[in-house]
Design a protein that fits this description.
A hairpin with a 2-residue loop joins strand 7 and strand 8. Helices cover about 50% and strands about 20% of the residues. It starts with a strand and ends with a helix. It has 15 helices and eleven strands. About 20% of the residues are buried. By secondary structure, it is of the alpha+beta class. Among the domains are: about 1-110, Alpha-Beta Plaits (2-Layer Sandwich); about 150-240, Roll (Chitinase A, domain 3), CATH 3.10.50. Helix 1 packs across helix 3, helix 7 (about 260-295) packs across helix 13 (about 400-420) and helix 11 packs across helix 12 (about 390-400). This is Trigger factor. Involved in protein export. Acts as a chaperone by maintaining the newly synthesized protein in an open conformation. Functions as a peptidyl-prolyl cis-trans isomerase. It holds the Pfam family Trigger_N. It catalyses: [protein]-peptidylproline (omega=180) = [protein]-peptidylproline (omega=0).
Length: about 475
Amino acid sequence: MKSAVENLNPTRVRLTVEVPFEELKPSLDAAYKKINQQVTVPGFRKGKIPARIIDQRFGRGAVLEEAVNEALPKFYTDAVNEGELNPLGQPEVDITELKDNELLTFTAEVDIRPTIEIPDYSGIEVTVDAVEVSDEDLDKSVEQLRERFATTSPVERAAAEGDIVVIDLEAKVEDEVLEDGVATGVTYTIGSGELLDGIDEAVTGLEAGGEATFTSELKGGSAQGKEAEVSVKVSEVKARELPELDDDFAQLASEFDTLEELRADSRKRLERSKKFEQATQAQEKVLDALLELVEVPIPEKLLEEEINTRKHNLEHHQLGQMGLNLESYLQMQDKTAEEFDAELKEQAEKGIRTQFVLDELVNKEQLSVGQEELTEHLMRRAQSSGMSPDQFAQAVVEGGQVPMLVGEVARGKALAVVVEAAKVVDDKGETVDLDDEEDETGETVEATSEAVEAPAEAEAATEAAEEPAESQEKQDKAES
């Protein structure tokens, strides 16, 4: 077999492959055997039909077609290996010549990973936010903890901001009650902004049994986006009572005996959280600086697939879980479809460039992933997804996503190498030491998931469940 490589552009090649007919013989024999098992010819036992009879009855062309189809993947793979190529996706194959008993010639066009030169990155310098915990930050953290231990009790007075009301709702559009526009026994905290626009003003001042009507644009349901006339009836008003900030509260809400000890521990937690955020910010900024140093051509087809996959995941996983569609999401974000598409393209391009550059760094630095590292990463991903490690591992294996996780760990190690070589200072001019920086769980800080995850086309089977869990995790960290 002979093969030649023609570079069509930095990310696409055309392979021209010539195969002597004798190299087709194993596939030709297999084709005769397969056809033998599929057809019946009077006078011959099944599977014992001579090749010449098959040629006469069914045509030599059918046999050649079967043989070529069976042999092409092997010849293509051999040509790729001979050319030392890194193909992306499936090739477009065209059989240009097939001479019986003489020669098979075909071409294959395929996208490839571009050749990337990693420059000296030791001169990268980035500035990050300084770690500061203000008294206001501390007060807010303690107040959030206090909110968790609030109690409620019914009151016989008009509802006010911060009160909890139990309400019945009925929505009408063009004087018709919507089938999905009736809800009873809804619990709502006045001022939370978690329901319809205008509801806070409507229920404020009402006592139990009071009713009001207001207009609001519906955020979901069959009449999403339409103006509706909403009737609300308050059946109960409850007041929230916060515990006193004293030593008794410290003993109730923590393992500490005094409020002073509780506040001191809260300050330490906030400092650890801010250090973790600082390390993450450093990683993101170093990555951006690295990407600016490297020219990375992107295959058009890969970019198109990446954009489509990201959009599909957003629409059918993340937004679907929140009961939103793309149109309502854009309204909430105050974005046009054109702005959204532009942002999505930019994110997709960065994701692909990031993977290409970090993968090249993995090769350059000869980084490998050990079983222990992979297991630790899997445990963290399982925790953030809300699954047990066994469930997550099963989903990853069944989805064929183990190589994706290995790639994430390797890319995280590659980024860590660059971060270690970079100079990181805070906005006060102080040098930041990120060596062995730990977050509040005691784990060594990894590269951010945005930096190390594979493009969306290699999305884990559990990503839909994982996204909201990751957001909740960040929220819990902030509150603690």
